[in-house]
Specification:
Chain A folds into two domains: 1-97 and 265-357, 3-Layer(aba) Sandwich (Isopropylmalate Dehydrogenase); 125-257, Isopropylmalate Dehydrogenase (3-Layer(aba) Sandwich). The first copy, chain A, is built from twelve helices and 14 strands. Chain A has helices at 14-27, 41-47, 53-60, 85-95, 118-121, 166-181, 197-209, 223-232, 244-257, 296-308, 313-328, 346-356; strands at residues 3-10, 32-36, 64-69, 99-105, 125-131, 143-146, 156-165, 186-191, 217-222, 239-242, 265-269, 275-279, 331-332, 342-343. In chain A, strand 8 (186-191), helix 7 and strand 9 (217-222) form a beta-alpha-beta unit. The longest helix of chain A has 16 residues, at 166-181. Chain A is globular and about 65 Å long. Chains A and B meet through strand 7, helix 6, helix 7, helix 8 and helix 9 of A and strand 7, helix 6, helix 7, helix 8 and helix 9 of B. The structure holds 3-isopropylmalic acid (2 copies). One 3-isopropylmalic acid sits between chains A (85, 88-89, 248) and B (194-195, 224).
Chain lengths: 357, 357
């Protein structure tokens, strides 16, 4: 059976890192139908929209999407609905990709890259499960209006709506509990239940789902405290589950603890395991086209694609082992380079992974 | 002229740390009328409400409030409106304390306490200016309702409203720009303008206010990126201004970078410089009553009180110098203790500051 995969390289370093991941996927000897389409700023330039209909249809029609990165400062002046980021929001919504899995792993070979002390982060391995299609990201109504009463009556006001429905929280709870079952069986749900109704509602549902997973220990933490504890003692976490907005902030903070965000993949899944796979880092327009970006996060995203959407766990393991091997060999792109290692380009790193497969 | 000051010790370690700050304030020879009232869980126990009318009236009628800390897990089961945190939210709202100033300073003597590498945090000195009476904290409507249409129709849904009116953003912008003028003249406004209407509105107003402060350089950063950059290179920041919710998260993250949150004061001010002053740390019920908590954040909060609400900058300087002196002498409470220093109790630390004055 042929698996159709949409390859959306996007902007900045997107094309060059995606190219290396495609080489790796192609080398595995699987029956894959890889189809490329423009997305983000590149699609805006070519077709006037960051998520053209043909790109969206290809994505909807594929088992999985390999996504590079989108965005560039040069699009900051565009109307919001034409900016590159809208492509990723549109794909999440259209495909119902509600479950974002973002591992924050510190590879032992890269312990020095972190801005934290080695003893705080060595061996770090946490998984952030972020809800990705609800919350204040998509809540209606939103906009700018006139204030109807109170001290600011008559003024203009920007506003948004945060909300979560019961089944939205339930389904991400199940994803998170199951992920915890496969790991160290500790799940920390992060919210702001001391202030927000949405958070209290979220917390109540997490508590209601917990008895279905008696082997998992559920705890709760306020988001401000979680932002602190990630800095203080990140290894105390196993799996963290949280809403879209808090997850945006905490997953980036957690990734940066490793100091090697160029190594971190992510998966965004829907109920039928269709998924979008992308590196945790951005499009880095400042180094685009220079063959110096780190392709490993994208290559590891391809491994997640195989594991979650194609049920090819053994092939995913192969890729992950190959990445470990190139790190062992001392090969480093500029972002993770340190004295005593070998600095390589994007394509040389791809070559090395292919060879190690 | 007598200055009336409300002393609200609160819960957990609140009473013992406040006691030391009161000793320091009293020793300065100023004409102060210090009046104590219960707040938080302590007030709930005594009077059935976390913010009794008499406490609120005392606060409204004072030039400034010295606040200890509120909260204890034992109140987690209470209805939201009776929980200790409601006292602090109620005081902020009733007094219009819209401007929260939270310095994150790493004292050179305490560089080892941080979980970050010394070269990343040594000399850290950033100021987070957090808007404190608007945003999703107080936005209406909020609650739990039935979903009217769409895929979750008929389900229960928790919801909240985020909003900012024009003058709310303007006044916090002015506070932040002025603070930046007194420091290194760099202001970073943090928002999520690529997703939220409230944030785009916030950003537009920051940009509109900027020309009034031509000597300050304004930049903008998305909140997820800010959470990362605080970990990666915190010293790149000077003053950060942000909304209530993002400020809650980022100010705690920034405080924890120092590893010595027991040292960090905060001020919450209204338009007439009436203010509430409290340590950045919490009520730490686990160590309450053991005479081991660090009183320095509260003592430094008293210094901020003198500077901002009583216009007694020289007296504030005196307190801050005394705190520097006790650190120089090697005195440390348990939270900042390390081998080679002298471990002291809460009251011994208070004694030492008094002596150093
Ligand atoms: C680009 C932006 C809309 C997006 C988000 O906020 O979700 C990004 O930060 C992410 O985390 O994937
Ligand atoms: C106690 C809580 C309501 C409060 C807040 O979220 O503002 C606290 O976290 C703070 O930052 O002062």
């Amino acid at each position: 059976m042929t698996h159709k995969i949409a390859v959306l390289p996007g902007d900045g370093i997107g094309p060059e890192i995606t190219e290396q991941a495609v080489r790796v996927l192609t080398a595995l000897g699987l029956d894959l139908d890889l189809q490329t389409a423009p997305v983000g700023g590149a699609a805006y330039e070519a077709e006037g929209h960051p998520l053209p209909a043909a790109t969206l249809n290809l994505a909807l029609d594929s088992a999985a999407i390999l996504f590079g990165a989108v965005g560039d400062w040069k699009y900051d002046q565009l109307a919001r609905e034409l900016r590159p980021e809208q492509a990723i929001l549109g794909l999440r919504k259209a495909l119902g990709l509600f479950a974002n899995l973002r591992p924050a792993i510190l590879y032992p070979q890269l312990a020095n890259a972190s801005s934290l002390k080695p003893e705080i982060v060595a061996g770090l391995d946490i998984l952030i499960v972020r809800e990705l299609t609800g919350d204040i990201y998509f809540g209606q109504p939103r906009g700018v209006r006139e204030v109807a009463d109170g001290p600011f009556k008559g003024e203009r006001q920007g506003y948004d709506t945060m909300h979560y429905a019961e089944s939205e929280v339930r389904r991400i709870a199940h994803v998170a509990f199951r992920a915890a079952q496969k790991r160290n069986k500790r799940l920390c749900s992060v919210d702001k239940a001391n202030v927000l109704e949405t958070s209290q509602f979220w917390r109540d549902i997490m508590i209601a789902v917990a008895p279905e997973y008696p082997d998992v220990t559920l705890s709760h933490m306020y988001v401000d405290n979680a932002a602190m504890q990630l800095v203080r003692e990140p290894k105390a976490f196993d799996v963290v589950v949280t809403g879209n907005l808090f997850g945006d902030i905490l997953s980036d903070e957690a990734a940066m603890l490793t100091g090697s965000i160029g190594m971190l993949p992510s998966a965004s899944l829907n109920a039928s395991n269709q998924g979008l796979y992308e590196p945790s880092h951005g499009s880095a327009p400042d180094i685009a086209g220079q063959n110096m970006a780190n392709p490993l996060a994208t290559i590891l995203s391809a491994a997640m694609l195989l594991r979650y959407s194609l049920n090819q766990g053994a092939q995913a393991d192969r890729i992950e082992a190959a990445v470990q091997a190139v790190l062992e060999q001392g090969l480093r792109t500029a972002d993770i380079y340190e004295a005593g290692t070998d600095k390589v380009t994007t394509s040389q790193m791809g070559d090395a992974v292919l060879k190690a497969l």
